[in-house]
Write a structure and sequence with these properties.
The chain is of the alpha+beta class. It has five helices and eight strands, in the order βββαβαββββααα. The longest helix has 17 residues. The radius of gyration is 17 Å and the shape is globular.
Length: 219
């Protein structure tokens, strides 16, 4: 895997969290930029893009990456992320190239996949204390970690996407996690995705789609 140096090179990098959803012929994405130094949300952006290809299991990146890219490009010019947390997988993927790998390589950002469920691999039990983790093994290789981000809570599955190792991916996810189970950049983005979907659900009717024409992005 190509590396660009660990995300920890800057002790307090700005971390973006990217989440996504598909509704009808469209993909939605929210990117939230988090500053771990002051534990504050700096900004967020919402985008909608028509699906370039239908979603197929194992090929999520091709369906939702354009919407996530559009949201990343809508962030202010003076608020560029140093690393990216993606709701999805990185190396812990049947093809060893999940959504976090695709986006990290595309944008040349250290990227980490964070997910609730495993697609591939297995791991040993993880003790209940926060910060402990067990390696996820797939075909004899370590492709990620089962990470306890909150004591007694269910583990999250963290896997390197691009520009980082498993250990650096775990460190980045923990550094961006507060009192909740999900890392704050992803939690903040998830909180803003649901209202955006509710407000714009009418855009997905066939009549509205015919009027809208080509794919576009919406704030």
């Amino acid at each position: 895997m190509t590396t660009t140096g660990p995300p920890s090179a800057d002790p307090r990098p700005l971390v973006a969290g990217a989440v996504h959803a598909t509704r009808g012929p469209c993909a939605w994405a929210v990117v939230a930029l988090w500053d771990p130094a002051v534990r504050r949300l700096l900004c967020h952006a919402i985008a909608r893009e028509n699906l370039p290809v239908p979603y197929r299991p194992g090929r999520l990146a091709y369906a939702v990456a354009p919407a996530i890219t559009a949201a990343l490009l809508r962030l202010p010019h003076d608020a560029s992320p140093d690393a990216l947390l993606v709701h999805g997988h990185g190396l812990a993927h049947p093809r060893r190239f999940g959504l976090a790998c695709y986006l990290g390589r595309l944008h040349r950002l250290p990227a980490v996949g964070v997910a609730e469920k495993l697609l591939v691999g297995e791991h040993a039990p993880v003790p209940a204390q926060r910060g402990l983790w067990a390696p996820v093994l797939y075909e004899g290789d370590v492709v990620g970690a089962a990470l306890r981000t909150r004591a007694e809570a269910k583990v999250l599955y963290v896997s390197p996407g691009w520009g980082c190792t498993v250990e650096e991916a775990v460190a980045l996810a923990l550094a961006a996690t507060g009192p909740y189970r999900w890392p704050e950049p992803l939690r903040q983005a998830r909180m803003r995705l649901r209202p955006a979907l509710r407000r714009r659900l009418e855009l997905h009717t066939p009549r509205r789609q015919a009027k809208m024409g080509p794919a576009d992005s919406l704030l």
